[in-house]
Write a structure and sequence with these properties.
The protein is an alpha/beta fold. The protein folds into two domains: 154 residues, Hexapeptide repeat proteins (UDP N-Acetylglucosamine Acyltransferase, domain 1, 3 Solenoid), CATH 2.160.10; 46 residues, no CATH class. Helix content is 16%, strand content 18%. It contains six helices and 15 strands. It has a seven-stranded mixed β-sheet with strand order 1-3-6-9-12-14-15, with no helix packed on it. A hairpin with a 4-residue loop joins β14 and β15. The longest helix is centred in the C-terminal third of the chain and has 10 residues.
Amino acid sequence: MHNLDITKKKFGPDPLNPNPLLDTAFLKAVVTSPNIEVGNFSYYNDPKGPEKFQDHCVKYHFDFIGDKLKIGKFCAFATDIQFIMNGANHAMTGFSTFPFNVFAEGWKGGFDPSTITAGYRGDTVVGNDVWIGREALIMPGVTIGDGSIIGTRAVVAKDVPPYSIVVGNPGKIVRKRFDDTTIDALLDIAWWDWPVDHLTKALNAIRGNDIEVLKSMKPNIET
């Protein structure tokens, strides 16, 4: 067990979480990088210390590259998931992928940065209400749609449509959680954007399975 003292450090960014679990932290309270954006209530669980998420789970995320990891609201991340960012890329336009330029002054001459940047895939985006299982691996530039589930040790190298279940290596969509009509309705309802007080009143509908009941509780939110 790690030596985190929860009596001195409050992980919850909102009063709705007055008693945070020892091994779980709301990411907004522990992420400091300006290149990682996190929505309210998204959390990470890790017995070794959830406050280590940024260093332990987000790899090759270099400021000079500028790619972002964008995480939506109400996401649940299990222990040892890995986001591989664009800094892991090697040049693949020539005969060797070895990064000669980073090891010796004499090997920097003639290096063309575009041989690496050509392989960058942009920001990594995780939607709202996404559950990522233990030791799952998310590759650079992937977008995971709202409501999706990524299985334990899945390797996700392609975009995931909303409300999909992905398992395996390479990650494959085994099914959608709901029919297309229900998915469209859920994306329109977007309960994760509701005011907290209204969301609290509607929890039974959100946790339920009657889409008409959930529709009827959608508040009028001015944009």
